[in-house]
Design brief:
The complex is a heterodimer of chains A (about 325) and B (about 325). Chain A is α/β, with parallel strands linked by helices and about 325 residues long. Chain A is about 35% helix and about 25% strand. In chain A, the strands form four sheets. Chain A has a six-stranded mixed β-sheet, with helices on both faces. Chain B is mainly alpha-helical and about 325 residues long. Helices cover about 80% and strands about 0% of the residues of chain B. Classes of the chains: A alpha/beta (about 325), B mainly alpha (about 325).
Chain lengths: ~325, ~325
């Protein structure tokens, strides 16, 4: 049974008397133990959708069902027992340790002054261990790197011990190693703890690798959802991210730039890696590859052969081409 | 970690007790410590000493403790509510709101029954309402103005508006009422008699109790409103409770002692620094003890010159540098 279900959901925001519709008629499902990445261009309503699903804002129309119960019937406390959040809001607290912050995740279970139960204490330690911050649990928040801070917030969400975790761009502002690590961590958590994890991200290639399912938000067609590979093969990514400047390269799952290629050249090779990188360099220099062009590059073990000359690096090849 | 905090707290409590004794002993009339002790054990034969101690210095010292505790806890709650290290009842105009309430009761409300005004309850109620109204205004503005220094300026403006309204009231009032108000506005701990303490003490205890019941929610609010909501905290209700508690604490103190500046902003920072914690279950008792100590120190200092200085002047000497330090540190 899915943990989250939406029925003809319309999302948007209301300012005074005017409401702006961002997406309408969404029928989505989020299963248990599944990691779903929410992807879409800026302005497609990723944050609005997450906030609506988390119950932080009202839907314009339709219903969000958590465990087959309408979210509008939940009290704030009941919501806190179902959904844990990791937001983009900046957390800056003087003199708070990692453990202090993670302990706040136990807030829905503590007594009136905030004391932990023995079980709660275990949950907090476990959450800190799961994000690999055991050796830093006594450190103050302002001593941590951005990546560590993000992991603290994830640990806080874990300590909340909810079946669903919603994260708004958890990889933003992180460097590449930390982005990979956070995505991998979330993927493992979903599978190990059977929690459902929903996150929005701009990291298309990472999402393709880590997500069990992708919700592709699109200004015109609503949400396209499915297993990442299916969406690549049926061309959904290409449709959603359409632009003159780049295209979604379905062979490697990356965005490639659309160069203007006025010049033609032909290439022959038996080494696929060398061929791949040579083609990229040639495209940047403005060459499209066509068999039967007047100039031919032959890729050998020793280098690149062109018009009887041997080049040891792509750099030297390009400089000759551009003369 | 925990034991360090316990020892620190015990030391601060001893310091508070010593300062309390010192405050009773020092004054324009020197009373030997032995006499002080005799008076409290009912052995003294000196009527003048016991009159000074029991009916003048003792209520004054108790008021100092109550005022320090109340203003510090109010400041702590405001700093968490606004997520602004510079928030404080005086700076954000809450004390001015209380003054306006008092001024209205003293000068404009000729229609009110005399008993209501002279009993002290009228002052307290008016001050609390005035304080809470200004707080609500500042809360409203804090949605539009995120920058902490900008919010500070808006608060100062609210304070200025309240003070101006007070001046307008003064212009139209009769001389007796004006004199009464000016005396009040000078701010003095010694104005609080036993009679007034019977009002001030229970009101402040009620405010502190409410504040203590909010510790858990205040901890959650440190993460910001959205995160707090995600932790199951009903935000609107919590905000109203914090405003109420702050209004009661800052308003009632201001009603009796006049505005006392900067204690509310300085003490929570000192508490955070000493206890190296952000948890309100530590910071609140620490702020109470430290705030009470600071006002006692201010009161002792104000006795040193031949003419008693207004308490507000001395607390500003402590507090204003703290604000400058915080702003410099944030850069």
């Amino acid at each position: 049974m899915p943990i989250v279900k939406t029925r003809r959901l319309s999302i948007g925001y209301t300012k005074g008397k005017n409401s702006t519709l961002v997406q309408s008629n969404l029928n989505l499902q989020l299963r248990r133990g599944e990691m779903v990445c929410l992807i879409g261009p800026n302005g497609s309503g990723k944050t609005t959708l997450l906030r609506t699903l988390a119950g932080l804002q009202e839907p314009l129309q339709g219903d969000v069902m958590i465990d087959d119960r309408n979210i509008s019937e939940f009290t704030q406390q009941e919501k806190a027992l179902q959904i844990a959040l990791v937001l983009t809001d900046k957390v800056q607290i003087e003199n708070a340790t990692v453990k202090d912050i993670v302990t706040l995740g136990q807030h829905p279970y503590t007594h009136w002054i905030g004391g932990l139960t023995p079980e709660g204490r275990k949950k907090v330690d476990e959450a800190i261990r799961m994000v690999h911050l055991d050796d830093k649990s006594g450190h103050y928040l302002n001593e941590l790197s951005d990546g560590e801070r993000q992991r603290v917030m994830i640990a806080k969400a874990l300590a909340q011990d909810t079946p669903l975790i919603i994260l708004d761009e958890p990889t933003a502002h992180l460097d590449l190693p930390n982005r990979v690590e956070v995505m991998l961590l979330l993927h493992r958590l979903a599978h190990k703890t059977q929690k459902s994890i929903l996150l929005s991200t701009h990291e298309l290639d990472l999402a393709l690798q880590a997500a069990d399912r992708i919700w592709l938000l699109n200004q015109n067609e609503g949400v396209i959802y499915g297993v990442p590979e299916d969406l690549v093969i049926d061309g959904s990514f290409n449709r959603v991210f359409q632009s003159e400047a780049y295209y979604f390269n379905s062979t490697n799952g990356n965005f490639s730039m659309n160069y203007t290629l006025p010049k033609k050249i032909s290439v022959s090779s038996s080494d696929n890696t060398r061929l791949y990188w040579t083609l990229r360099a040639l495209a940047r220099a403005g060459y499209s590859v066509e068999s039967g062009a007047s100039t031919t590059i032959t890729i050998t073990k020793n280098g690149w052969q062109m018009e009887g000359k041997l080049f040891e690096t792509i750099e030297s090849l390009l400089s000759t081409l551009q003369e | 970690m925990k034991s360090r905090k316990t020892i620190l707290f015990a030391l601060l409590t001893v310091l508070l007790a010593l300062l309390f004794l010192a405050d009773l002993t020092f004054g324009s009339i020197r009373i030997p410590l032995s006499e002080t002790i005799n008076v409290f054990f009912g052995k003294s034969t000196n009527n003048i000493y016991s009159e000074i101690l029991l009916n003048f210095r003792l209520p004054k010292a108790i008021t100092a403790i109550l005022a320090g505790a109340a203003l510090s806890v109010a400041g702590l709650m405001m700093q968490t509510l606004f997520r602004n290290p510079l928030a404080d009842p005086y700076i954000l105009g809450v004390s001015s709101g209380a003054s306006l309430g008092v001024a209205i009761v003293m000068m404009a409300a000729a229609a009110l029954p005399v008993a209501f005004i002279s009993s002290g309850w009228g002052l307290v109620v008016a001050a609390i309402i005035g304080a809470a109204l200004v707080l609500l205004l500042v809360v409203g503005v804090s949605y539009k103005v995120q920058n902490s220094v900008s919010l500070l300026i808006v608060g100062i403006m609210f304070g200025t508006i309240a003070s101006s309204l007070v001046s307008v009231l003064q212009y139209f009032s009769n001389p007796d009422a004006i004199k009464l108000f000016i005396m009040w506005n000078m701010g003095s701990l010694s104005a609080v008699t036993w009679e007034y303490l019977q009002i001030l003490l229970p009101v402040i205890l009620a405010g502190l109790l409410l504040a203590f019941m909010l510790t858990k929610r205040l901890n959650g609010l440190l993460l910001g409103e959205n995160y707090a909501r995600g932790l199951g905290i009903p935000i609107t209700q919590t905000r109203i409770l914090i405003v109420t508690a702050t209004g009661i604490l800052a308003g009632s103190v201001t009603a009796f002692t006049g505005p006392i500046a900067f204690v509310g902003v300085a003490i929570p920072h000192i508490a955070r620094g000493l206890f190296r914690s952000a948890k309100h279950q530590y910071l609140m008792p620490a702020s109470i003890v430290l705030g009470a100590s600071l006002i006692l120190i201010c009161d002792i200092i104000s006795q040193i010159p031949t003419h008693t200085l207004p308490i507000n002047t001395i607390s500003a000497l402590f507090g204003a540098p703290v604000i400058i330090w915080i702003i410099m540190k944030r850069k």
